[in-house]
Amino acid sequence: VQLQAFGGGLVQAGGSLRLSCAASGGLFSTYAMGWFRQAPGKERDFVASITWNGGSTYYAGSVKGRFIISRDNAKNTMYLQMNSLKPEDTAVYYCAVDRTSLSLTYRAQVDYWGQGTQVTVSS
Q1: How far apart are CA 95 and CA 110, in angstroms?
Q2: C-alpha span between 72 and 33 (Å, rounded)
Q3: Contacts of 14 (CB under 8 A, 6+ apart)
């Protein structure tokens, strides 16, 4: 499975960005998928995840109510709509796949990582 994340950039606080993660290989429509982020000097943390059919979504407390995760299995693509961005959202965002679990929450579950896309929020 290969994952390519894109859509990051520089945005002012309060603005919005939409990240995309395109998958190739494997059985995309059967995998739980998610987003993690890593700020400089910090660990890679869970942001959001979505079950294989989009029926359930999960969010970190710090982004709940501001970010929306979705997927389009026909296009083998996952999205993260980020609204009301804050400077503390600045990080490299990684998309991830868990081939076996119903839901994805922990780094240890991840089978494949995308290459990451930088999101910078200025104050």
Answers
A1: 10
A2: 12
A3: 84, 85
What Rg, from alpha-carbon coordinates, does the chain have?
13
How do residues 85-111 score in pLDDT, each as one tens digit?
A: 999 999 999 999 999 988 899 999 999
Q: How many helices (H) and strands (E) does the chain have?
A: 0, 11
Q: Are 9 and 89 in contact (CB under 8 A)?
A: no
- Pairing type for strands 9-12 and 117-122 reads parallel
- 108-120: per-residue pLDDT in tens? 999 999 999 999 9
Nearby residues of 61 by Cβ (< 8 Å), 6 or more positions away? none
Residue 123 makes CB contacts below 8 A (sequence gap 6+) with 13, 87
Residue with tokens 């990080």: 91
* Cβ neighbours, 10 Å, residue 87: 11
Return d(Cα 66, Cα 85) in angstroms, integer: 8
Q: Which phi and psi (to 5°) does residue 109 adopt? A: -80, -20
